[in-house]
Amino acid sequence: GIPVRTTLDNSTTVQYAGLLRELTRKARSAVRDIDPQNDLTFLRIRSKKHEILVAPDKDYLLIVIQNP
Amino acid sequence: MSENPTSGKTSVKSPKTSAKKQKGEKKAKKSPKGIQTQLGEKDEVDLSMASIGHPEIFPLIFTTKTQEIFNCRIGEDVTEKNCFKLIKKEDIIQDLKTAAISDFHPVKKVVLEYPGEELLVVFDAKFQYGQNFYLVASEEAKENILKPPETAEEKEEEKEENREEALEVQPYKPPVQKPWVSLGSEREVEEESVKETAPKIKYMVSRVQRRFGAPLTLTDRNASHVGDSYVECTPYQDKTFIIKVLENDVGVQIVPKVREASTQTKWTYPKNAATQYFPRQLSSEEKEESLSSKKLKDFLTSVHLRMEIALQQNEIMNPFFDDWKALAEDESSSDGKPDVYLKAYQSFTDLHYLKNKTISCVCWHPTIHGIIAVSAREQLSYEEQVNLSDKSLLQQPVIVFWSFSDPVHPQLMLECPQDIYCFQFRPSDPNIIAGGCVNGQVVLWDISEHEEMLQNAKTVADGIQVTAVNMANASVLNVLSCLMKPIKYIQQLLLNVILKVILEVYEQKEKPSLMQVQQSSREPPLVRHCAISSIQYSHKKPVTDIHWQPDCSEDHQMDATLENKAEICMQLVTCSPDGSILFWDIPATKLPQPPSSGKTKVKESLYMPPDVPDTSKHLDFCWKPLIKINLCESDINREYSPTRISLRELHYRYKTSEKMQPLNILQLLAKGSPYTEMNISSSKNLKVLESISTDFFIGTEDGEIVYSDWKVEMDSDSAKPKHTQEYIIHTGTINTLQRSPFFKDTILSIGGRNFAIWKEGIMNGPILQSSCSTGRNTAGHWSLTRPGVFFIGRDDGNIDIWDLMKKTYEPCHIQNISKSAISFISPWIGSPMQHFLAVSDDLGVLHVLEICQTLIYPLIHELANVLDYFEREARYLKYREEEFLEHQESQPKTELKRSRKHRERKQYVILGIEKNKTFFIPLEYDCSTENRRREEMKQQGSADYIVFFDLEKQIQVDLGLVKGQGILSSSDV
What we know:
The complex is a heterodimer.
Chain A: H1 10-34, E1 43-46, E2 51-56, E3 61-66
Chain B: H1 5-30, H2 36-39, H3 41-47, E1 57-60, H4 64-69, E2 84-88, H5 89-98, H6 108-113, E3 118-123, E4 133-136, H7 139-146, H8 148-168, H9 185-192, H10 284-292, H11 294-316, H12 323-333, E5 342-348, E6 357-364, E7 371-378, H13 382-390, E8 398-403, E9 412-415, E10 420-425, E11 432-437, E12 442-446, H14 451-456, H15 463-484, H16 490-521, E13 526-527, E14 531-532, E15 545-548, H17 553-558, E16 572-576, E17 580-584, H18 599-606, E18 625-633, E19 638-639, E20 642-647, H19 657-671, H20 675-682, H21 685-690, E21 695-700, E22 704-709, E23 725-728, E24 734-739, E25 746-751, E26 754-759, E27 768-769, E28 777-782, E29 789-794, E30 798-803, E31 813-816, E32 822-831, E33 834-841, E34 846-851, H22 862-890, H23 893-902, E35 905-912, H24 927-959, E36 967-969
Parallel strand pairs in B: 9-13, 35-36
Antiparallel strand pairs in B: 1-4, 2-3, 3-4, 5-34, 6-7, 7-8, 8-9, 10-11, 11-12, 12-14, 15-16, 16-17, 17-18, 18-19, 18-35, 20-21, 21-22, 22-23, 24-25, 25-26, 26-27, 28-29, 29-30, 30-31, 32-33, 33-34
Helix pairs in contact in B: 15-16, 19-20
Organism (chain A): Merops nubicus (Northern carmine bee-eater)
GO biological process, one term (chain A): microtubule-based movement
Protein name (chain A): Dynein light chain roadblock-type 2
């Protein structure tokens, strides 16, 4: 993904955007494979350090990284 | 079968005639029975038993005479069992010739043709072949008959054996051709074969001759006129002749198809390749465009709610909560209480040095495992002590080093000039130990030479003998290590090395005698102090507490360009009941640093022959404190007599070299450097000192806790007076005043019959105060690992373990350790699993206890919970204070004033002690102006100043700026 707007530094943003786009794509295809009429609406990744919240849509992703 | 009478005669006749002929022939053959000789062969054939299947056997009738001749009388020579009789061929021939009618006559020809010498005659008792004897006509059969009974049996036996063997091994036997034996199959074949059974029928057809050759008369007939004029034979299927094919033999053979093929893969030549990529990014216009696009807005509106819900959920519930961990904690806490909280691990005592003494201080070696140092003092009151101190009758006081590995022999002794009341390892360099003496002096030891020995103490049980060698080695190593120092210091080194070598030589001469003494008495090495403060400038009473302040040795290295590498911040803080607190700089020479000019001096002092009695010549006696703070109460003219002091850690001030400057000045002051230098640097120090927190707590002999500030300016005419707050809570001498290792602003004070916990900044009183216990509390220490736990030693030898997480009104556990009072407690983390608590008592015994697991590992959120508890208590105190103030305001003002007048005033003095009697100068002002002012003030006298100060105070009180309880005035002395 290409970041449109960010509050993080550039390199981190690019990394997050690229990786999470891929992940979201995979997750969406998994959901759709299971039930073609279903769709992914939200993605939460809980890690030791933060929680990453991803709200996907057709053209955009909204990524929130939450610190504890 | 209809028989034609004419033809039937002829056909039947012929068989009849043939049958008659055969019969006639047979009769002709059989009828002349008597004339056997004529018939010859044909008779013999009939005589033999060929019809039964034995053509070689010829039944005979032996008359009794014949039997006699051939010795085969029935019942005598031959019996049923022994039925065989061999008769010689010649005898038979003889008999045939002599006798008229020999019994052998019928078989004469057989006998004559017989190939062998003897003929077998068998007695046929059962008339098997019709006569009483029979002759065997062939050698082969003779053998068979003679042997069969045996061979058959044998064969059977063999067969059985074979069978048994066959079970085991079946060796291959080539098949042997055998004669065909009929088993009835030929009958089946017979039945199968087709034979004519019915007699053939013969027909004879004849015609009268005249009818042959008659003329033919042919006429036409209409086929349709007469019914049977023609017969039609239509074909039809005869069902009886339909055969269904039920079985069909078909043979199929599969032939595999074989094909040959080959491929060739191409080998590509490996090449190095590199690609560079960069993330795609939108240009600012594109960004602008997409940010303002409707799509994005739609997206945000649609996504906004979901994200908000997720964040809200996180807000409500902690997503980072580790359920698993929490589970484990619950289990461990539900284990139940251990029986013993403190388990005895080891105890140390020394009959020689520690007998009848009380242990004044216990310190773990900060770095070496299992080394603990103990100082002892006489069990005397202060007065007695003072009186006795002049006389050196007492046992040589020492600090004893014990090791876990050897509970009997001390590892090291530090020789003390006087009884030591307290001592501490230097945190940055554990080889330096500072101690406070009963007479107020401060002593320094350097045990770097013995460090190796202490480390090896574990392995070497009888390390004492080794140490002597080590000592000699260490000294040599010292020289070597000096040689190894960077080239930078070569110039200094040259001088030092020479000096050192000289010293070493001197040492080597000295040492043997010492070593001999040590070895003979099995004494551990005795280390002499390397520095001692001058009596004149030391405390006047026993040094009761000593603290190392974190120093900045790292920074020193960075500051190598400075003229003096050994500039050290205030290193030591001591306090004594004489009402003074001293800040000491350790002599630069003590530092185990690259040799400085001062080091040699120390060496000299170090290796001063120990026997020299004139201590006044000792170089160390010129060691003086940097700063002296006198605590006195101006009104009553009474001094506080601090026994314990607790300062905030100071390290954060020394981080940069710039901040080092004030300390430099102190150093320079102490060294008596020219004023000019001081002035230059002092101007820079203004800021630095501002940021320093100079507040401290003291606990006094009378049980007061005093919170004060030692940063007192000489220019106090302009500045606010310092508050000194005093609380009387404890009923006896404060013996412990300690900051929590977890909360730097939380202090535990123990004295008399109770203890209290204080929070810096909350000056209304202690945040926790215990009720009075039955006995005196004599020692205490925070737990190093649990924020809410501390240990308190009692005069009845018990240890109270307090756990604020469990109970705040009584100790959670009480354990008896000793018969006498506990004198000191010191915990130590031996390993993550093993924590120790060193407890000493008045009898001179040091108990090392192992702390149980529950007191080692903090509970979850214990830190936060304890902090919360302390803060809650603090809030409560504030609230109470406000209530109190409101209450006070309602009272008449006069009363308030009176009460305030009664409040004590504290005088607060700071002193710079210098050789040339210059005074310590507050650093916030330029030194020249400062000096001028000070001289003016001197002229005015302190009285004027106090008057002025009181006036100022009065004004402030009237303005309500100051509560009037702590009034400070600072003046020169």
